[in-house]
C-alpha cells in the first residue's frame, strides 16, 4: 500500500485499528507495538472525548463495552499516557488528542480550553 492510498482509504474506509476488533470489541491486544498503539489510541477516542472527565465506574463501563478484559484495557490506556487517573482512582480524563478523535464513534470534545 502506498502512502497516497492510505490517505485516500482513511477518508472513506474504517480506521485501520478496526481490523484488530471483532464486532467492535478488542478480544486480544495486538503483539506489534505499533499496532497496539494504534488500537489504544482508537479506543481511547471512544472512552473519553478530548477534555472530558469521568468517574471510575463510568470509565470502566465504557471500556467494558469495548473489550473482553476491561480492567486490562483501562490500565493499558493509562500506562500509554492516553488517559489520566487521579491517584485515588476515582476520576479519569483524556491526556491528549489523537488522530482518531474525529472518527465515527469517537466521543465529542468538551468545549473550552484544555491542554493549552
Overview of the molecule:
- A hairpin with a 2-residue loop joins β1 (21-22) and β2.
- This protein has one domain (3-94): Arc Repressor Mutant, subunit A.
- The protein is built from 4 helices and 5 strands.
- The chain starts with a helix and ends in a 22-residue tail after the last strand.
- The radius of gyration is 14 Å and the shape is globular.
- α3 (56-64) crosses α4.
- The protein is of the alpha+beta class and 116 residues long.
- Mean pLDDT is 87; it is low at 1-12.
- Strands 3-5-4 form a 3-stranded antiparallel sheet.
The multimeric state of the shown protein is single chain
* Sheet with most strands: strand arrangement: 3-5-4
Q: How many DSSP helices?
A: 4
Specify the helix fraction band. Answer: 25-40%
**Which shape, going by the Cα principal axes?**
globular
Rg is: 14 Å
Descriptive labels:
116 residues, alpha+beta, Arc Repressor Mutant, subunit A, 3-stranded antiparallel sheet, two-stranded antiparallel ribbon, 12% strand, disordered N terminus
